[in-house]
Amino acid sequence: xxxxxxxxxxxxxxxxxxxxxxxxxxxxxxxxxxxxxxxxxxxxxxxxxxxxxxxxxxxxxxxxxxxxxxxxxxxxxxxxxxxxxxxxxxxxxxxxxxxxxxxxxxxxxxxxxxxxxxxxxxxxxxxxxxxxxxxxxxxxxxxxxxxxxxxxxxxxxxxxxxxxxxxxxxxxxxxxxxxxxxxxxxxxxxxxxxxxxxxxxxxxxxxxxxxxxxxxxxxxxxxxxxxxxxxxxxxxxxxxxxxxxxxxxxxxxxxxxxxxxxxxxxxxxxxxxxxxxxxxxxxxxxxxxxxxxxxxxxxxxxxxxxxxxxxxxxxxxxxxxxxxxxxxxxxxxxxxxxxxxxxxxxxxxxxxxxxxxxxxxxxxxxxxxx
Length: 370
Ligand SMILES: NC(=O)c1ccc[n+]([C@@H]2O[C@H](COP(=O)([O-])OP(=O)(O)OC[C@H]3O[C@@H](n4cnc5c(N)ncnc54)[C@H](O)[C@@H]3O)[C@@H](O)[C@H]2O)c1
Known about the structure:
Layout: H1 4-17, H2 20-26, E1 30-34, H3 39-53, E2 62-67, H4 75-80, E3 86-90, E4 106-109, H5 116-121, H6 123-146, E5 153-157, H7 188-208, E6 212-217, E7 220-221, H8 232-241, E8 246-248, E9 255-256, E10 259-260, H9 261-274, E11 280-283, E12 290-291, H10 292-307, E13 313-315, H11 336-342, H12 350-361, H13 366-369
Parallel strand pairs: 1-2, 1-4, 2-3, 4-5, 5-6, 6-11, 7-10, 8-13
Antiparallel strand pairs: 9-12
Helix pairs in contact: 1-3, 1-9, 1-12, 2-9, 6-7, 8-10, 10-12
């Protein structure tokens, strides 16, 4: 089995190799990432610092993270805190921006709770980060332009959930699909605040001619995603490492496509730098569209091989009555727009990604705290 460090190192190398042009555009500039302590932050942050290591000092990207550390400061970030090109600021994005805010040339707004279990627990905070937090960052972009210090790229994290539960004829789903979404159901705090967030982005982009772009991620997984995050793949990993059977709290029939995090990160930086202003891009993979039951069987097979795991998959009913309400039956993107506009070509297979994810979770205390 590979070591955790090897998996991370190979992923960072893969990301940087696929982002030569994009990181060259960020060279020597200040980049702000909100929510940088989270799952996506794990590689968004480390790939920039890795690129800094392999480039001239003068071209280093100066990175600042704003995060309220709602679930603690992860160890991987504490380890990086003395890096000269990294500034960590404890800031809740729903509060007014700090008075001494720097001039940022690129901004990624990733601060929001993303796990369904947690956003249902903190619905108001989730909406505030995606609407009020976004609004003050967009306002910052507007003012910076007036000051003649224009932001060159702004990325808002929306979600594939803005499509809701598409009708069969709208799957695979292109960016032009308008969605089939409840505005009052248990998931609405997330889906609807992301939808309104996109509306804010489009209107700021058009009205003030600002370079604001939107990514719609489709189910990412891999290193950085806490084993305690209550998303499907870490849940499987938790069962495996506890040596028990994998329990599915559904009949396992809904289908998804799963995009390994290294491929997704490449897509996000491409949207930030090359995306068209005021437009949204699906970032994910088209294949395989796999049922949760088949995914569980696949993970079991890989774990048998990799870890000598002896468990099996069993089905149960969740005690949480809202657990599956408005849960889409199928989710699968069309990614032609990102392929054409951005030269986005995800290439890590599901089997390889799952192997890497399980390796990262194996004996990794950071997977609990990360
Ligand atoms: N991971 C995915 O597959 C996925 C899918 C669709 C959309 N997204 C979106 O991508 C973004 C990042 O997702 P993630 O998986 O890294 O989420 P995450 O929950 O792992 O991390 C989010 C980070 O944001 C911080 N945060 C939350 N509210 C904040 C606030 N008010 N002020 C400052 N910081 C705050 C948290 O402390 C955390 O570090 C989110 O906007 C999410 O909705 C992710």
